[in-house]
Amino acid sequence: LKRIQSQNVTESEAESVLQNLASILKNAPKPEEESFFLDLGKKLWEQDRNSIGAIEQYLYAIYLNENCEEAYNRIVEILAREDEYRRARKLSEEAMRRFPGSGHVYGVRGYLESQHKNYIKAIDYCNKAIALEKSHWYYNIRGCALWKLNRRYDALRDFWCSVRIRPKYGAAVKNVKLLCNQIGINEILRLALQKKKEKDWMQCRMYLECVLIADWKNETAKAEVAMLKAKGHE
Q1: CB 58 within 8 Å of CB 74
Q2: What average pLDDT is seen over the chain?
Q3: 3-class SS of residue 147
Q4: CA distance 28 to 39
Q5: Inter-axis angle of helices 69-81 and 103-115, to 10 degrees?
Q6: 100 FRET partner, CA 20 to 30 A, in 10, 41, 196, 228?
Q7: Alpha helix locations (H) across the chain?
Q8: 185-197 vs 219-230: helix crossing angle, rounded to 10
Q9: Above 60 in pLDDT, residue 82?
Q10: Does residue 124 contact residue 141 with C-beta atoms inside 8 Å?
Q11: Do residues 55 and 78 make contact, with C-beta atoms less than 8 angstroms apart?
């Protein structure tokens, strides 16, 4: 509402914001619950890109529950997107101190470091996150950092792991396609067949599945995957 009052927005834009607020209030839990502020903060950020308003709501959630890990992580993600590295890092350190057994606090820190091109640090934090919890998001973040360091095959492995955990995760699927085309489909097929000769079935299947993600019509890869399944090399 403050944004509508302070900026020259069109009637349709104002109506859209008001409809979002009405929807939030209609379906929201009671205001004394931290989930109310988590939901409101999420909607303010995702629908209106209102970073200040969203962070305010997450701070209310932390006020109600000082151990609200989700609020810490969401603030760090927003600050990372808004290029507020120092503030994000400080809050991330506090989150890791409070929740040392959570993979997500390390994954978010990995995301922060990757956003600011600290790729070795990003990989280290993602390693910690993955050791605690296997998540498609952590693998994709680590894969992007590895790719930036020109470790293309390690990156491809991580993108493949991400897709295996969540097959419809668009970011990882896109990264597999881009990286396969950068390396070359025929080169990846050659590696798959080499791993087949070495009886390294997991690596063979990984390369074949990456080929099919990038080129689902590839008959050679289809035939090889079918043969692996027939022989029980899942």
Answers
A1: yes
A2: 91
A3: helix
A4: 8
A5: 10
A6: 41
A7: 2-6, 11-27, 34-48, 51-64, 69-81, 85-98, 103-115, 119-132, 136-148, 152-165, 170-183, 185-197, 201-214, 219-230
A8: 20
A9: yes
A10: no
A11: yes
Residue for token pair 């063979």: 204
Structure tokens at 138: 């952590």
In the block, tokens 């502020």 appear at: 37
CA dihedral 190, 193, 199, 204 (to 10 degrees): 80
pLDDT for 14 equals 76
In angstroms, rounded to a whole number, what is the distance separating the alpha carbons of residues 213 and 160?
9
In the predicted structure, residue 137 carries a pLDDT above the cut 80: yes
Give mean pLDDT, residues 106-133: 97
Q: How far apart are CA 130 and CA 94, in angstroms?
A: 20
